Amino acid sequence: MSKECYYCGFRDPMPFTCKFCGNAYCYNHRLPESHNCPGLLKYKSKSSDSGIFYKRDSVVRRKPNPLLNSFNNIISAIKSSYSLTILILAIVSYLLQYIIPGYSYYFALSPFDIFSRPWTLVTHIFLHSGPIHLLFNMMFLFFLGPELERRIGGKKFLTVFFISGIIAAIGYSLWSVFILKQHSTAVGASGALFGIFACLAVLAPNIVIYVYFIPMKIPYALIFFVLLDILLIESGDLVARSAHLSGVVAGLAFGKHLKKTGRYLR
User: Other C-beta atoms within 10 Å of 25: how many?
Assistant: First the structure.
């Protein structure tokens, strides 16, 4: 749950608690040296077993600079969340598609060329076919990504995101080569996002989301989209539904593993 940084006032979605003074701080001021922690020096002079904590009022709070406040808040938010970092990278990558000639061709996923261009298993995630494609995927990431990241931590979140994206790319490639037998490149983060979707559905089944303005618990919403992809997988549209389904499989596997180990925030 987000908390206001006691030093600068920024509301961080993933705050850090200082073990010396007990206050909550943003990413930029999480270290004792960054927020002028009054307990650090005294802690060093005492025994490591003393367990000293200090009052909130003893912290010298920085006076916010109105000119830099908004910019610092944006930087802090991006640094504190891998979901937002990925979102920014995807937007920058989309802009580069229109600036650098051959950018999309070099980084898009080509099912018949994955052995000669293996990096496309990852890079296709940051490409999108148009503004609507980008908008919906980034909205998906913005709302569901931080929810999963908060529960399992940043490193595990990145693992779920990228492994799901890679498995989605492999699933799409196998479907295109052996079933459809046609050469069609793929771009977009949908496969990775469906992995996040499925993992979150396993770990937090009581979350309610809106599907076409209809409230649904997240497991039922996942089932709805899975059935939709299965029904339309051979429709010939431009949606990489085999990538969606492959990402779901990866996300469900991650979710069940994390739930079994219990290493997540309930």
Answer: 26
For range 227-245, the mean pLDDT: 92
The DSSP bridge partners found for residue 214 are 211
CA distance linking residue 206 with residue 110, whole number of Å:
38
Name the catalytic one among 93, 124, 244, 246. 244
Domains of the chain: residue spans and CATH: 3-73 (4.10.1110), 82-261 (1.20.1540.10)
CA distances 175 to 118, 121, 188, 218, 222, Å, are 17, 15, 17, 27, 21
| Tokens, residue 97 | 């598609």
Between 62-66, 213-217, 261-265, the lowest mean confidence (pLDDT) is in 62-66
pLDDT in tens, 104-134: 999 999 999 999 999 999 999 999 999 999 9
Model-level pTM? 0.74
- Secondary structure element (H or E) that encloses residue 154, with its range: helix 154-174
Q: What is the pLDDT of residue 7?
A: 73
Contact 203, 150 (CB under 8 A): no
257 belongs to the catalytic site: no
Catalytic, 190? Answer: yes
Which is catalytic among the residues 190, 235, 242, 246? 190
